[in-house]
Amino acid sequence: MLETYRQTIRYEGVLGLYKGFGTVVMGTIPARAVYLGTLEATKSVVLKVTMKMGVPEATSAGLSNGIAGLVASRLTQTVIVPADVVSQRLMVQDGRGMTHYQNGIHAVREIFHKDGLRGLYRGSGMSILTYGPSSGVWWGSYGMTQRKIWRMLQRDCGHPLCSAGAVEHPHQHLVVTVQAASGLCAGAVSAVVTTPLDVVKTWFQVLENKEGGKPSIAATVRTLMREDGWRGFYRGLIPR
């Protein structure tokens, strides 16, 4: 990872680290609006249903968060995939046998001219398979872990933070700590589960098929296996 930073700065300067930044921002704003709106609405509905069914609180929280994350991610892909494709093309272009894009708008025009609308949604299936489970696993793990931590804190362990009063009326620092710990656990679980899918998706979106013919998921997987073996599917795991 550090070598990638050094090489990028060496050949392209600091601005090279921000290739595709504008496209990412323009795609992220509407995508986040769709994601958060869908997430909260779905979570509320599922939580009510599971609680009425008598599902335990921690399990109910995990299910409602997980399902909501899955649904929200699915809808968000209609917005984020084109921005993802364009930004990644801008990030990896190096002038060696690849189309040179001047900016995001130019990239959209070139991709649409060459491949049509399907070109802007290249890898959308893999995006759904990647981000859907990733979002579901993250929110499910987060909701369940958070409930588990609060339940553990309700037991008097002799520390002021574990007292019943501290849990019933928690200080802001305690709330942030619990949320941070839950997010850390959820992020680790999600990264391990979905990094291989994300690697395949990214390669499929930005690279040409080295075996000839049209690019395919199968060809991308074979290329990864041939060049790096199973370790190749976990490229970028640590930064995530």
TrEMBL record:
Top-level taxon of the source organism: Eukaryota
Keyword match Cytoplasm: no
GO cellular component terms given for this protein: membrane
Subcellular location, principal: membrane
Family: Belongs to the mitochondrial carrier (TC 2.A.29) family.
Topology class, membrane: Multi-pass membrane protein
Protein name: Mitochondrial carrier protein
Annotated compartments: Membrane
SUPFAM superfamilies named among the record's database cross-references: Mitochondrial carrier (SSF103506)
Chain positions of Solcar repeats: 1-45, 60-148, 174-240
Keyword terms of this UniProt record: Membrane, Transmembrane, Transport
